[in-house]
Amino acid sequence: MEVQAFLTELRALGVVFSVSEGKLRSQGPKNALSAALQERVRQHKEAIIAFLSATFTTAETHAPIVPVPRNQPLPLSFAQQRLWFTDQIAPGSASYNIAFAVKMHGALDLGVLRMALQKMVDRHEAFRTTFVMAGGVPQQAIAPDAQLAMTELDLRHLPEAEREAEARRLARAEAGTPFDLARGPLLRATTICLSDSTQLVLLTVHHIIADDWSVGIVMREVGVCYAALLEGREPALAPLPIQYADYALWQRNTFQGARLEAELAHWRRKLAGAPELLQLPTTRPRPEVQSFRGAQVPFSLTAEQIAAVRELGHRHGCTPFVVLLTALQALLYRFSGVTDMVIAADVANRDRREVQPLVGFFVNQMLLRATLDGQLRFERLLEAGRDEVLDAQAHQELPFDMLVEHLRPKRSMAYNPLYQVKIAYLHGSGGVAELPGVRLEFLGGEQQATKECDLTLFLHDTDDAVHGALEYSTDLFDAAPMARLVEQYPLLLQAVLAQPDIRLDSIDLRTQAEREAQARPAPAAKPAFGGFKSVKPKAVQLPQGGLVTFGALAPEQQLPLVVQPSVAGVDLAAWARDNQAEIDAKLLAHGAILFRGFNVSTPDALERFAQALCPTLYEENGEHPHLAGKIYRPVFYPPTEKLLWHNENTFNASWPRRIWFACARPAERGGETPLVDSRRVFQELDPALRERFLAHGVKYMRNYRPGIGLSWQQVFGTTDRAQVEAVCRAGGMSWEWKGDDQLRTSCVRPAAARHPLSGEWCWHNQAQHWHVSCLDPDTGEALRNLCAEEDLPRNCYYGDGSVIEDEAMDAILAAYQRLEVSFPWQLGDVVMLDNMLTAHARNAFAGERKLMVALGEMISV
Fold it and tell me: What's the pLDDT score for residue 413?
């Protein structure tokens, strides 16, 4: 008896066999097997066990994958179904194109190459598959034969110096050309002739029929076919036991019943209580529908670094992948402050022997959860990561899309379910093609970043080095913070490789240049000229760095750093433009810089200086009265009262990281702008109080009503309610229209956050600016008499809606009061703040006071 044919016959009846602990197991409908079939199974039991044992590894359980007739409906695999639905929602997208390029030097025979590629189309059904609707559901449609779509281009008519650039342009255009999943073909080949001896070969395939493993298969088999066909013989490739459609049907039939429930129970336990969204500090608010657009920042780890990674992994019983994953988790913790995160890892999902030679979309996502804390030592996190990976690998076969279907997480068009950050680790060189008489130069791909994630870390370990790239969503991030994150990844690795027991909060993520700049002692605020008074002055050419001095308002006082001109007539904007890196480093170290003696007393002068450091200043400001250009006045607050400490606009989804205040006229008395180091506030608060705010955030509630504060028309800059609702929706705010001209908004924002550059924790909110207990007693009593608590102009709560106790606010106010630094304004002063590192206030004053405000570098957390 032919065992495989017999098992196929039984499978048609819904009965599948597997081997467990040496015993034959069956699964299928009750009474599906007739007495005759049962007898045949008993007679050939040993042969069936031998066949299954020889066909599958010990990790492979349950039904074998066997060929199925092609005259029946062929369903999509779960992963294919996801991409098909994505294509239906956003047709014409090239987001899931896989494109790679190979430059071939030598005597390449294009006719033979075409035949070799055609052999791939003939051999792998995936290349002849399209996706059609049948009976209201998507099905695979497999053509019995198909001709390779190959385009031949010749650039030899161009000047040699222009050919490479034109070839790159053509490669980008090819990679960005979408596929039609219903019509196909879903594989394209293009050859570009660069010279008599050089061809650029481009292959583009849709991800729904292939993955990275498939690319390696194609490269190897094309080499075998090319060599054989060049000699006039048929290629000697082993027959494929099954095709991808067989796997898709097997997958659909296998994950059901008791096995499915066991897998789902495992993942329900694993993911219980996990956050639905990994809250990273973004440059912009998350749009309601992600565009799938993105960019990449490449980087490399040296041979020495990867050798140290292997050594650390060996000492802790884990692979280099686990070390690199743990470093990513630690870095994201420092970047975001998130203590409970789920990261996905790509797994090849090809443990079964029969699928290993197939072209197809097998890759699956394995979810890895980590709990982090600043006091946690890296080596403990590494060991926890090792155990987490081993546990996940034991349950990696369950299709991710089936997991989503059954767990039913909150679905959103704005982000991927269950995870938003992924790591993709490839070890080895992938497919290696050898073409007689041709030297191959692999140029990588032109994949369309980004896919479904906020961040994806790609790592290709070639043993000699690791080549990586951070892919990020341009909906959310600008290039600068992502470049910084990529810069910090090897810095973090370097630190933990040197000291594996280091605590996460102790890892220094500064570059050498930043450490040196911040360690440089500040010169005295006043240059010592006494010994030179008798020297006759003469003209000298001063370097830009010698035009100013750095000092402090008082000995040992870090906040603010004081910058003053060394000579008369220094152009502050020009000096700042030439010394931006040094200013940035000092602002990061001190949190605030006072520029004194530069006479910045007009809106034009302030705008020119601020734009020298931040070309794009914030203009859509409904809270501050407009003054001129991109300069505003401070918000109105009664001059007889102190405006309490706060970080500007942190009740919004995005806010300025940099703020400039300039003095056009100091008050007759008072009117100072007290500063407080937000890092020290975070450190001084009671840990229990701090943790409660970290867990829940702050819920800000605002009521716009005629006659009390700014109207909603002023703040939102429109009288159109639909526009107001669109702004609220984009900023993550809820809204409620009350009466004819009243509006209530509410939102939850973080109470503290890690600084995106230094990684330091900052107390970063406006609770004391909003909480009703922080008003002066007379104002608070008057407002309570005027309206109910929920109708107060402003108030705030814990993020879960519970009341923030007056005692909690008293403790926070006391911390600010202890740490406050205050100094009188002088005409022409400019104070530049990092709005995360430093909070500011305003003292009561008498007489006329004129300050100007500029805001820039809008970010979100």
Answer: 83
Question: Using an 8 Å Cβ cutoff, are 250 and 348 in contact?
Answer: no
For residues 444-472, average pLDDT: 79
Are 783 and 766 contacting, i.e. CB atoms less than 8 angstroms apart?
Answer: no
| Placement of tokens 């001063």 in the chain | 542
**Position 62 pLDDT exceeds 70:** no
- State how far the Cα of 169 lies from the Cα of 172, in Å rounded to an integer: 5
How far is the CA of 634 from the CAs of 192, 662, 817, 853, in angstroms? Answer: 61, 10, 22, 6
Q: 256 CB contacts (<8 Å, ≥6 apart)?
A: none
**Among the residues of 448-579, which ranges form H helices?**
479-498, 512-519, 572-578
Which single residue is written with the structure tokens 């600084």?
755
Q: What is the mean pLDDT of residues 22-28?
A: 67
Rounded Cα distance between 661 and 739, Å, is 38
Cβ pair 582, 517 in contact under 8 A? yes
CB 579 within 8 A of CB 609: no
Q: Which two tokens stand for residue 430?
A: 């992938």
Q: What angle do CA 163, 164, 166 make, to 5 degrees?
A: 65
Dihedral pair phi/psi, residue 515, rounded to 5°: -65, -40
| Cα angle 756-271-76, degrees, rounded to a multiple of 5 | 100
Q: Any idea which residue has 């911040």 for tokens?
A: 518
* 195: pLDDT strictly greater than 80: yes
The β-bridge relationship of strands 592-595 and 340-347 is: unpaired
Angle at 650 between CA 649 and CA 653, to 5 degrees: 95
Taking only the tens place, the pLDDT of each residue in 735-763 is: 898 876 789 999 998 999 888 888 889 99
Q: Kindly state the average pLDDT of the residues 634-653.
A: 86
CA distance 583 to 576: 7
CB-count exposure of residue 467 (10 Å: 0-12, 13-18, 19+): middle
Which helix (DSSP H) or strand (DSSP E) does residue 19 occupy? strand 16-20
Q: Hey, what are 858's tokens?
A: 């809008």
- Per DSSP (E only), the strands in 666-813 are 669-670, 675-677, 698-704, 734-738, 742-749, 752-754, 761-763, 794-798
pLDDT for position 718: 85
Residues written for the chain: 861
Coil, strand, or helix at residue 456? strand
Amino acid at 225: C
Amino acid at 52: L
- Residue whose tokens read 């703020």: 659
Q: How confident is the model at residue 428 (pLDDT cuts 50, 70, 90)?
A: low
Residue whose tokens read 């070309």: 615
Is pLDDT above 70 for 572? yes
User: Which residues are bridge partners to 708 per DSSP?
Assistant: 705
Higher-confidence residue: 472 or 136? 472
Averaged pLDDT score across all residues of the chain: 85
pLDDT of amino acid 60? 43
User: Residue 745: what residue type?
Assistant: T
Structure tokens at 154: 């010749």
Query: What average pLDDT score do residues 530-534 get?
Result: 34
Specify the pairing of strand 149-154 against strand 187-195.
parallel
Q: How far is Cα 398 from Cα 709, in angstroms, rounded to an integer?
A: 56
Among 224, 229, 202, 203, smallest CA distance to 109 is for 229
For residue 397, give both structure tokens. Answer: 């076969």
Q: How far apart are CA 325 and CA 424, in angstroms?
A: 10
398, 263 Cβ separation under 8 angstroms: yes
Grouping H, G, I as helix, E, B as strand and the rest as coil, residue 106 is strand
Residues 694 and 752 sit within 8 Å (Cβ to Cβ): yes
Beta strand segments in 262-339, E: 294-301
pLDDT digits (tens, 9 = 90+) for 661-696: 999 999 999 999 999 999 999 999 998 899 899 888
Mean pLDDT of 768-773: 84
Confidence of residue 63 (pLDDT cuts 50, 70, 90): low
- Give the DSSP per-residue string, 222-245: HHHHHHHHHTTS----PPPS--HH
